[in-house]
């Protein structure tokens, strides 16, 4: 866990600074540019969720660690071998082998991957629980935005939230929805309690902007305190870092939370 302190004297800690919990993306971490930018004005905590490729909580390792994956692979190899020794023609070998491969692919897509993503999100939430209790506002970027949404929808977090190009796709599977209640097709007012600011770049080639647009369509005018902004930027949203724009977003959502109170 990394903690950064700013020099602003307006806020909610003993030092007078609002407490920001920053949730980073897959390829970022506690020392990323957004966490450092926020630390100029806020008391920032950023837990290392270890979700980068090769790290202990990466989605890929959760996929590899699924027992059902190895069961599917064993069944695929066994079926292919059985067909190989019992058929006399290439035609039937290709038919049965192709069918087994197709079934295995469906199981991986609709069971193994969703469970692996849900396990990854659950682990991230467990890492964040202590910091969530002390935060005044949560800022989630990319995959961290998905974790922040899961925290809000499951009731773990009830305060103001800023979502920066959130990776909505990991939440759009039945297993995550079963565990955390998130549903892309329902207003967030059904789940989340605090005001939400959502920002996405129109030129984002890493996380499709359509997910955020869907959230905006469902929530603008329905979910209290929901604000959507689409900017001419890419996934990193580098345009928010200069001139205090990211700081202004956080201050704005904090002010909306105070008006609700």
Could you explain how this protein is built, in words?
Helix content is 46%, strand content 13%. The chain contains 8 helices and 7 strands. It is elongated and about 75 Å long. The model is unreliable at 6-11 (pLDDT under 50). It has helices at 33-38, 59-64, 67-86, 90-134, 143-153, 174-180, 210-219, 245-260; strands at residues 2-4, 19-23, 43-46, 137-141, 161-164, 196-201, 226-231. By secondary structure, the protein is an alpha/beta fold.
Could you give a quick summary of the protein structure above?
The protein is an alpha/beta fold and 261 residues long. The protein has helices at residues 33-38, 59-64, 67-86, 90-134, 143-153, 174-180, 210-219, 245-260, and strands spanning 2-4, 19-23, 43-46, 137-141, 161-164, 196-201, 226-231. The longest helix is centred in the middle third of the chain and has 45 residues, at 90-134.
Task: Present the secondary structure layout.
Layout: E1 2-4, E2 19-23, H1 33-38, E3 43-46, H2 59-64, H3 67-86, H4 90-134, E4 137-141, H5 143-153, E5 161-164, H6 174-180, E6 196-201, H7 210-219, E7 226-231, H8 245-260
Parallel strand pairs: 2-3, 2-4, 4-5, 5-6, 6-7
Antiparallel strand pairs: 1-3
Q: What attributes does this structure have?
A:
7-stranded mixed beta sheet; 13% strand; alpha/beta; 8 helices; 261 residues
Task: Give the N-terminus to C-terminus distance in angstroms.
Answer: 30 Å
Number of helices: 8
Helical residues, percent: 40-55%
Radius of gyration: 22 Å
What is the total tally of β strands?
Answer: 7
The biggest beta sheet reads: 7 strands, mixed
Strand order of the largest sheet: 1-3-2-4-5-6-7
Low-pLDDT runs: 6-11
**Shape from CA axes?**
elongated
Mean pLDDT: 84
- How much beta, percentage-wise? 5-15%
């Amino acid at each position: 866990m990394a903690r950064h302190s700013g020099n602003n004297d307006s806020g909610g800690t003993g030092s007078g600074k609002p407490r920001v919990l920053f949730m980073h993306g897959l390829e970022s971490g506690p020392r990323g540019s957004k966490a450092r930018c926020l630390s100029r004005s806020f008391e920032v905590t950023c837990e290392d969720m270890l979700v980068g490729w090769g790290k202990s909580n990466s989605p890929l390792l959760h996929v590899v660690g699924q027992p059902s994956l190895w069961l599917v692979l064993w069944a695929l190899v066994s079926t292919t071998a059985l067909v190989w020794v019992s058929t006399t023609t290439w035609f039937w070998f290709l038919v049965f082998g192709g069918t087994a491969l197709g079934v295995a692919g469906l199981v991986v897509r609709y069971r193994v991957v969703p469970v692996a993503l849900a396990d990854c999100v659950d682990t991230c939430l467990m890492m964040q629980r202590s910091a969530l209790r002390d935060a005044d506002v949560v800022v989630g970027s990319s995959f961290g935005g998905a974790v922040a949404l899961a925290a809000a929808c499951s009731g773990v977090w009830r305060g103001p939230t800023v979502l920066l190009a959130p990776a909505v796709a990991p939440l759009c599977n039945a297993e995550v929805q079963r565990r955390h209640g998130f549903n892309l097709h329902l207003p967030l007012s059904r789940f989340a309690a605090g005001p939400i600011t959502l920002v996405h770049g129109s030129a984002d080639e890493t996380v499709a902007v359509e997910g955020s647009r869907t959230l905006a369509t469902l929530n603008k005018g329905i979910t209290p305190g929901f604000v959507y902004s689409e900017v001419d930027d890419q996934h990193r949203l580098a345009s928010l870092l200069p001139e205090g724009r990211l700081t202004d977003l956080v201050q704005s959502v904090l002010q909306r939370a105070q008006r609700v109170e």
